[in-house]
Amino acid sequence: MTAPLPRTIRWVGDTGGHLELLDQTKLPTEEVVLELRDVEGVVDAIARLCVRGAPAIGVAAAYGVVLGVRARAPTPQTFLGMVAEIANQLSASRPTAVNLRWALERCIGAAAERPNVDALLAEARAIQSDEELMSRKIGEHGAELVPEGGTVLTHCNTGRLATAGDGTALSVLFPAWRRGARFEVLADETRPLLQGARLTALELQREGIPVRVLADGAAAGLIRTGEVQLVIVGADRIAANGDFANKVGTSPLALACHAAGVPFYVAAPMSTFDLAVATGDDIPIEERDATEVTGLHGARVAPEGVGARNPAFDVTPHHLVTGIVTDIGVLKPPFSPHIKESAAGSR
Ligand code: MRU
Q: pLDDT (tens digit, 9 = 90+) per residue, 30-89?
């Protein structure tokens, strides 16, 4: 029996405490826990993907607000302005996942009601437990989608490392497995940063779920030849019409599923929906450093002098989506009215 991984995010102590993050850039070879005591450290950890995955970065940022405000000791008069300033600093660390902004807005709301650090820490803890609960409910709603004896393909990492609970897409697989369903998972390696090969494969292996890693470019061919019965992925932001942004390489999977008649599901908590964004065209896509693409594990693979495009996410249009597994149920097309209704009901 392998020991469980250290917790993805953990606040240690009271308002004088610190934040612990499992450094995901080091997995699967090393289990290093970062101890963060200032907001600058949290911004850096989010930007470098030490903590990553839409719900997880929201939770980490909320604790970052506590650290930032604590260090500057604002007066009751300057408290709210200071929280907003720190929230802006954290929000700029990664632009695509809306859970980050969602969590920071909750912190600002808490500060407006009770301008003290205790209230901010209580709100950060509440955000973490709300995300954990949403994650569990996604699993409950989606478990029956898993094809008995079949193969499920997934992209990037959407498990315990990416959330405050069991995950989004992976949280659907865990309860299905525990209830006795048997299936295999193909984990896209997810270039350039290999979240699938490094993190998803690790999480599934530790759970005892059979997993094999797949070069991203192999997925469409296996979907076409009938080797995959379900594709399920997470999301970083879902627009009001159901278009969604997720790790780059997601939209080709949706196209391949559409062409082959294979179900393509998205799993996400209500904190990932952004009704202020009408369609996927309005979702900001993070462009990361070219060296992530021109190199591998710090070694250059492209010829010196050649640059790269490195969009970290892509947008999948809603017409390619079979359903969206959320914490309040599985949404089916037409998505616009169902999303509007669900968002209103979840507030
Ligand atoms: O760049 P990352 O590793 O933060 O990207 C993560 C993803 O794209 C996940 O699929 C997404 O956050 C949703 S599931 C938690």
A: 999 999 999 999 999 999 999 999 999 999 999 999 999 999 988 999 999 999 999 999
* Residues 10, 51: Cα–Cα separation, whole Å: 12
Judge whether 236 counts as a catalytic residue: yes
Pocket of ligand 1 (CB under 6 A): 49, 52-55, 97, 156, 158, 162-163, 168, 195, 234-236, 246-247, 312
DSSP assignment string, 56-109: HHHHHHHHHHHHHHHHH---TTTHHHHHHHHHHHHHTT-SS-HHHHHHHHHHHH
Task: Kindly name the residue from 166, 188, 236, 314 that is annotated as catalytic.
Answer: 236
Using CA atoms of 112, 115, 116, 117 in order, give the dihedral in degrees to the nearest 10: 30
- pTM for the model stands at 0.97
Reduce the DSSP state of residue 40 to 3 states and report it: helix
Distance 177 CA to ligand 1 centre (A): 22
Expressed in angstroms and rounded, the spacing between residue 200 Cα and the centre of ligand 1 is: 11
User: Whose Cα sits closest to atom 6 in ligand 1?
Assistant: 53
